[in-house]
Amino acid sequence: MKKILVSVVASALLASSLSAISFKKESLKIDFEGYKTKEMIATAGTFKDVKYTFGKDGSSLTTYLKNAKATILPSNAFMGEGLELITENITKVFFPSLLGNGDIKVLFQDVVEGDNKGVISAKITLDKKSTIIPLTYTIQDSKFEAKGQLDLHTFKNASKALKDLSNVAPGHGGISWPLVSITFSADIE
Fold this sequence. Notes:
Elements: H1 2-18, E1 29-36, E2 41-47, E3 51-53, H2 61-65, E4 69-72, E5 77-78, H3 84-99, E6 104-113, E7 117-126, E8 129-140, E9 143-151, H4 158-168, E10 179-187
Helix pairs in contact: 3-4
């Protein structure tokens, strides 16, 4: 009987380790897309050097992502090679105007897991003010991608920050939109 019990426990442990989930750390990425001009032209960027914390229980995507955290330094925003002026406008004008010297904090509060798709309730905190946005995710070919949209008007300094950005960036044509598209992606191990 003891051998059977040990065999069942060993099989269960092996099966759970085979279905364990985690993200490849070097593949983690947070991208954003802001909009400018009357035509709502997109301008894409990414955050570099984000600090992540994930759950230790990788038995499912839900347990791995529930209460996961990201701390983003706004000064690490990068708008692309050869776009130093745009990066400077975002890091030295927009973000300081929006949240001072603070960081952006993200907490994955709830996860609804379907068949290679689901929804994450992401709590985003800027300057001590928080809002929750849904991120819909898909998994395809071992790639995880979650997307959502943030309305900056939720935050008290947003109108001023958007105006300040429009003032220093003539390419905005006087309009910086409050809507920001957010993408969190990673390769699954």
